[in-house]
Amino acid sequence: MDEVLLQNAVDRYLRMEMTQQERLVFEELRRTNPEVDQLVVAHSFFLQELERFGQLKEFKSTLNTVEAELLEEGAIKPERLTAGARVSNMWIRYRRTIAVAACIGGITAVCISGMMLAIAPKHDARLMELANKVNSVENSQRVLRQQLNEVTKTITPSPAELKVSGTSFLIDGRGYLVTSAHVVKDVSSVFVANHKGDNFKARIIFVNPLQDLAILKIEDSNWTTSGPLPYGIKRTGAELGEPIFTLGYPRNYAEIVYGEGYLSAQTGYNGDSISCQITVSANPGNSGGPVLNEKGEVVGILSTKQPQTDGVVFALNARNIYSALDSLKKDTTNTYPTIRVSSVSTIRSLDRVDQIKKIEDCVYMVKGY
Question: What's the CATH architecture for 164-368?
Fold first, then answer.
């Protein structure tokens, strides 16, 4: 039993299967017991030779396969040998294999001898001490797992309640997004999610309730910058009757939805001059999403839907993003670097499907808790 235990411990040690505590105990035994240390060295060399032998066999099998294929194709002819020549040829071909096998046999004998020496009665005490420590660690881990399972059964954590959801889009590839102010109103924490379902922690850095505009900053170690944005933020408004399209998350989960329509009025609700009216299908989750023209330019931020009227939606003009950034620059408490916004669209020559493929990576769902 001691022999099996020691051999198993050496094998687990060399294969890096021990826990950190087991490894520390075993290394202490190696340091204080030269016979065990020699056994580990011999066993390690033995395993290396076995691996080399396996690689040699695999290489010879590959050569045999290639030879068979060449014979089948007629590229080479089989070599016919006399009886005496066959024996000589076999020795020449397999003498390395025979030598490796003999070497492995010798190493095996050395390992067995080392094991017998290491488990001699004079070292039984150390061996049993190692076994007891290993068993003690395993028992402790088993007890901890049982206790953790019991705690898990008794605790039923209540997940944070999702208060509101909406849409946002990047205005700077370093993680700055724009959304509607009412989307993040009265929330204590904000997360954003892309169309792949990846969630990232975000922070509110600017809010203008009068214009219903907010700026967020992704602050998550798992998020990487996206580089230059495919669309531009237009400084002037859209023309009456101009076709537009939207992307957003009206379904409360990370599936982006496309909508299309046209600019139906150049003013918003009750003649509001900072907004415009668009005719497009939209739901509350679309709030904060981009409104784009055929050139892939952002012309507005989808804001509110006229009550009891289907398809009549209001959007804040995109030029208000620039005024919000000016206000942010003047804020003495702002510690963020200057946000760089481009007005140039690089997707104006693409068709609608390809435009969406470029834009959807920059549109995020907003989750307020």
Answer: Beta Barrel (2.40)
